[in-house]
Amino acid sequence: MNTFLITFTVFGLAILAMAVGVLLTGRRIQGSCGGLNSAVIGEDGERRCSICGITAEAQASGECAEESTTSD
Question: What's the number of domains the chain is made of?
Answer without folding.
Answer: 1
